[in-house]
């Protein structure tokens, strides 16, 4: 696919910022933004990037509407910026 880790992380940060305070996005939205025609292979790298960003405190991973630690990420998740984040 050829999409760098940095590009995936940048797309996550851009989309979570654009979503606004308290709003969340799906990993598939990020993957589709990076490769609209062939996005499914990017879901793994998007989830890995989300785990790195969450571990760094730059985003939150939500499961069933509640924040979960990156190491507990499984199943259906959503991503958002932490409250009070303006970067």
Number of strands: 3
Q: What is the CATH class name?
A: Mainly Alpha
Strand fraction: 5-15%
N-end to C-end Cα span: 28 Å
SSE run: HHHEEE
Which CATH architecture? Orthogonal Bundle
Radius of gyration (Å): 12 Å
Number of helices: 3
> Main sheet, how many strands, which sense, barrel?
3 strands, antiparallel
Detailed description of the structure:
The protein is of the alpha+beta class and 87 residues long. It has one domain: Orthogonal Bundle (Arc Repressor Mutant, subunit A). The protein is 41% helix and 11% strand. The protein contains three helices and three strands; from the N terminus they run αααβββ. The N and C termini lie far apart (28 Å).
Topology:
Layout: H1 5-19, H2 27-34, H3 43-55, E1 60-63, E2 66-68, E3 78-80
Antiparallel strand pairs: 1-2, 1-3
Please describe the structure with a list of short key phrases separated by commas or semicolons.
87 residues; alpha+beta; Arc Repressor Mutant, subunit A; three-stranded antiparallel beta sheet; 3 strands; 11% strand
Summed up, what is this model?
This protein has helices at 5-19, 27-34, 43-55, and strands at 60-63, 66-68, 78-80.
